[in-house]
């Protein structure tokens, strides 16, 4: 079972090496990184990773966003030819894939599906900025508090009820997919399109979750908002309608001089975090896996009673 990961990176010097380390520890065979003209040292970090690790590669930056999403295009085509993976995943530098077994290759759904949907959860952090060194161990990732009571936010809802924190937003999932069954990814890598005539066998992954850390430092958040503005300048047509609405909102907040305020309110006080833990709104990856097992056992018992 060969799994290849593709990571898009821009100005992620703090997170990228830790994300790469976590993926390699979890059984990912090869990792390809695209650097989108970073200016914070990320490019040098990728050079070091590629020179140090034989299974980490740099891939060229694309100018044609739509063409870069196809399986036979300039991004995925060379990767598939070189690595010949059974499965691929596409992630961001601030996403940590956490497997119940510790090995993504042992993900149960890979046995007889073509696409496995992996839920993402924002980390619930206190006002003190996290000690990123602790993200370098699997135990720390498993113990990271995650917001599981999520709200489906929208620009309209945030405008009407601005007291909502974006950190509680229900995130779009990420995917593990069989590349030989795909035609292309959708924008944002949250959806895929199968080859013509192919009916993808889809399922929800029960033994993998993704911890998302978008707010590790204000400087990083500010860079990401600045970079989002540049993305819209280059690919505005591809982000029409409600796509990436939260980034457009943060750009407006920045123009109004309130970005630091927006950043600060994403964190939970010690009392809030305690209350969220007690209510079940916040738990860990270990807690999520335990709850899913309990729910699966309950469904199994219900089926058995109905069959008697």
What's the CATH first level? Alpha Beta
Output the CATH topology: Spore Coat Polysaccharide Biosynthesis Protein SpsA, Chain A
Mean pLDDT: 90
Just name the CATH architecture: Alpha-Beta Complex
Count of DSSP E strands?
14
Number of helices: 10
Largest sheet: 7 strands, mixed
First-to-last CA distance: 39 Å
How are the strands of the largest sheet arranged? Answer: 3-2-1-4-9-6-12
Helix content: 25-40%
Radius of gyration, whole Å: 20 Å
How many domain regions?
1
- What is the SS-derived class? alpha/beta
What would you say this structure looks like, in words?
By secondary structure, this protein is of the alpha/beta class. It has one domain (3-307): Spore Coat Polysaccharide Biosynthesis Protein SpsA, Chain A (Alpha-Beta Complex). Helix content is 35%, strand content 19%. The protein contains 10 helices and 14 strands. It has helices spanning 16-25, 42-52, 76-83, 138-143, 155-160, 218-235, 245-255, 259-264, 270-279, 285-307, and strands at residues 3-9, 30-35, 56-59, 87-91, 95-99, 115-118, 120-122, 146-147, 174-177, 182-185, 192-194, 202-204, 208-212, 282-283. A 7-stranded mixed sheet has the order 3-2-1-4-9-6-12, covered by helices on one side. Helix 6 crosses helix 7 (245-255). The chain is globular. The two termini are 39 Å apart.
């Amino acid at each position: 079972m060969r799994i290849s990961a593709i990571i898009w990176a821009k100005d992620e010097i703090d997170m990228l090496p830790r994300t790469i380390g976590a993926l390699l520890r979890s059984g990912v065979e090869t990792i390809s990184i695209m650097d989108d003209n970073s200016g914070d040292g990320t490019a040098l970090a990728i050079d070091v990773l590629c020179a140090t690790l034989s299974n980490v590669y740099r891939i060229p930056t694309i100018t044609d966003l739509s063409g870069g999403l196809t399986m036979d295009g300039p991004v995925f085509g060379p990767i598939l030819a070189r690595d010949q993976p059974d499965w691929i995943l596409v992630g961001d530098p601030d996403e940590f894939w956490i497997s119940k077994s510790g090995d993504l290759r042992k993900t149960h759904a890979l046995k007889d599906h073509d696409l496995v949907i992996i839920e993402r959860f924002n980390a619930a952090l206190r006002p003190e900025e996290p000690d990123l060194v602790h993200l370098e161990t699997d135990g720390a990732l498993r113990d990271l508090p995650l917001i599981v009571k999520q709200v489906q936010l929208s620009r309209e809802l945030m405008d009407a009820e601005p007291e909502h924190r974006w950190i509680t937003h229900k995130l779009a999932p990420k995917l593990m997919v069989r590349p030989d069954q795909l035609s292309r990814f959708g924008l944002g890598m949250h959806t895929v399109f199968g080859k013509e005539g192919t009916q993808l066998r889809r399922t929800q992954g029960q033994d993998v979750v993704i911890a998302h850390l978008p707010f590790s430092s204000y400087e990083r958040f500010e860079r990401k908002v600045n970079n989002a503005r540049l993305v819209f300048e280059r690919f505005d047509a591809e982000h029409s309608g409600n796509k990436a609405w939260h980034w457009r909102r943060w750009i407006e907040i920045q123009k109004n001089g309130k970005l630091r305020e927006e950043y600060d309110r994403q964190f939970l006080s010690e009392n809030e975090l305690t209350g969220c833990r007690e209510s079940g709104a916040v738990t860990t990856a270990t807690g999520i896996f335990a709850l899913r097992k309990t729910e699966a056992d309950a469904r199994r018992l219900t089926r058995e009673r109905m069959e008697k």
